[in-house]
Amino acid sequence: MSAPTSAPAIDVERFVQFTDVPLDEAYALLANPRTRLTLHVLSACEPPLSLGGLTNAVACRDDADEHAVRVSLSHVVLPKLESHDVLEYDCEGDTVRLDKPVVAAADPVAELAGVPNSSSNDPPRDSAD
Predict the structure, then answer these.
(1) Is there a domain that residue 63 lies in?
(2) Distance CA 125, CA 93 (A)
(3) In this predicted structure, what is the pLDDT of residue 120?
(4) Which residues lie in Low complexity bias regions (predicted)?
């Protein structure tokens, strides 16, 4: 599985503050560029987000094959984030829920064309500052 060549940075201390993930574990989680990209997309969208919508948004920024991104999300990224109680991933319903933004929604990834929202007319969520 390929990883994105670039992913937006995440303020690790902010991530720790909003998720209660211990600092060392946060650094380990956020070392994966696709995880960072996923968190940016989820923080910019209203929950819940379909796995297909998340896959599409991540693949657009990732310049990777959608199938490879979906496999990476469903088997690696989302289960790891769920195991740290960062989000809820319903693999049977193919939905992902991030209850509050954990990165600033004004970051460049929020400007992706076609960032999916749960309601197509809703603006991206405000960041949790």
Answers:
(1) yes
(2) 23
(3) 37
(4) 110-122
- Given a contact cutoff of 8 angstroms between Cβ atoms, the answer to whether 88 and 97 are in contact is yes
Structure tokens at 107: 């970051």
Residue 88, beta-bridge partner list = 97
Q: What is the pLDDT of residue 3?
A: 52
The DSSP call for residue 18 is H
Split into its structural domains, the chain has a count of 1
Residue 117 falls inside a structural domain? no
Residue 110 CA: distances (Å) to CA of 2, 10, 13, 91: 22, 14, 21, 24
Q: Is the pLDDT of residue 118 over 80?
A: no
Instruction: State the SS3 of 30-72.
Output: HCCHHHHHHHHHHHHCCCCEEHHHHHHHHHHHHCCCHHHHHHH
**pTM of the model as a whole:** 0.79
pLDDT at 105: 56
Instruction: Indicate the SS3 state at residue 124.
Output: coil
Collapsed DSSP state (helix, strand, coil) of residue 90: strand
Structural domain containing residue 103: 12-110
